[in-house]
Amino acid sequence: MTGTALPVVDTGCRDVPVLKERGQREVFCGLTGIVWLHRKMQDAFFLVVGSRTCAHLIQSAAGVMIFAEPRFATAILGDRDLAGMADCNEELDRVVRQLLSRRPDITTLFLVGSCPSEVIKLDLAKASQRLAVEYVGKVRILSYSGSGIETTFTQGEDACLKAMVPALPETQEQNLLVCGTIADVVEDQFTRLFRELGITNVQYFPPRRATQLPPIGPNTKLLLAQPFLNETVRALQARGATLLSAPYPLGVEGTTAWLRTAADAFGVAPERLASAIAAPAQRARTAIARYKPALEGKRMFWFPDSQLEIPLARFLARELGVENIEVGTPYLDKLLVDAELDLLPRTALSEGQDVEKQLDRCKAAAPDLTVCGLGLANPLEAEGMRTKWSIELVFSPIHGFDQAGDLAELFARPLDRVGRLKV
Ligand code: SF4
Predict the structure, then answer these.
(1) What is the Å distance from ligand 1's center to 53 Cα?
(2) Where is the signal peptide, in residue numbers (predicted)?
């Protein structure tokens, strides 16, 4: 494959051939997920078992919390550990005991694996089982890997949630389980809308408190709020849940279709849905319209990073008139994005990354805006290209009607900055 532009065809992307690349990648690792997961689950603690690099990454990504007790930390593997001279399991048990005796507020402890812990083959699954016996009835101890080998940063959440699935209580009741971290304010908005539709048995996963795990069973309907939970979805399906295939609640169209999917699954009349969403959808349309002049006709290139690329490209193309040149995604799991592919106007799709080749394609296409990770954004800006950091789209509340205007603004802002600098 050379650095030439990919062919672009007409409407709907379900049958578009996907360019699959496996080469050098520029992405953050799964530890990054701790930044939003620790904010969401307020009684959980994340103990990274890693190196100083890992500590530095989450410390700088999450900022130093000076007003509250932190809810993440790194047990640093020193030279003696890495050289196999120390008993890492004993050390880990000692650190965990010290932490839990000092912090009785912790109800769930995640031992988070990293590249170094994987390299020395420290088995955190076994460690969590061993410690879980010691703390049974007091602290739930789980483990997952946030290692950067072969992963992208949103997979940290997928691995974390998958680790929680076996602990979810069983139910035979009909319920709606919304899966994927969303801001509390957005969760409250959705809960109000579901209530207006008469859907009242709604839970969210992850929950706000790790002790209040949502129940699951054969009558659970699963509605995804995030498109990166590939393994979690399969684990929930194995527990009996039925996945509702829907576009993601981004923008007016996505949010409407997402709610309609839930409404149809729970037998809600279309008129009731139309009446419940009329006002917030209109507010969202008005908010989005403000950014259309800045975005309409702009050409956008997406590097694979957050796995939100396909739903966001669909929103920008259909509601703001953006032309997507290439939409790259780290993984393309049709189970999770089929409904999105039907809506995404024809564009070139790529999965995985060979960063040099993709940079060549991007530069040859000369987009108005490039959506990419931090590692690529600064060099591209230095070359005079405008960029949007994809990680910001995971940290910001962007779901639902009331956030649709803010979501459009996140893309309009870098373009607006160019205009101001020119003035
Ligand atoms: Fe780096 Fe790996 Fe640690 Fe992530 S887990 S910060 S990629 S060493």
Answers:
(1) 6
(2) none
* Number of the ligand 1 atom closest to the C-alpha atom of 114: 5
> Is residue 149 pLDDT above 80, yes or no?
no
Residue ranges of the binding site for [4Fe-4S] cluster: 29, 54, 115
Ligand 1 centroid to Cα of residue 189, in Å, is 36
User: Are the CB atoms for 75 and 48 separated by under 8 Å?
Assistant: yes
Which one-letter amino acid corresponds to residue 343? L
Could you give phi then psi for residue 137, rounded to 5 degrees? 80, -10
Give me 325's structure tokens: 């040149």
In three-state secondary structure terms, 205 is strand
Spatial separation of the C-alpha atoms in residues 413 and 246, rounded to whole Å? 29
Give the binding-site residues of ligand 1, using a 6 Å CB cut-off: 29, 31, 50-51, 53-54, 57, 114-115, 146-148
Model confidence pTM above 0.90: yes
Whether residue 5 is predicted with pLDDT greater than 70 in this model: the reply is: no
Q: Look up the ipTM and state it.
A: 0.99
User: Is beta strand 348-353 parallel, antiparallel or unpaired with respect to 108-113?
Assistant: unpaired
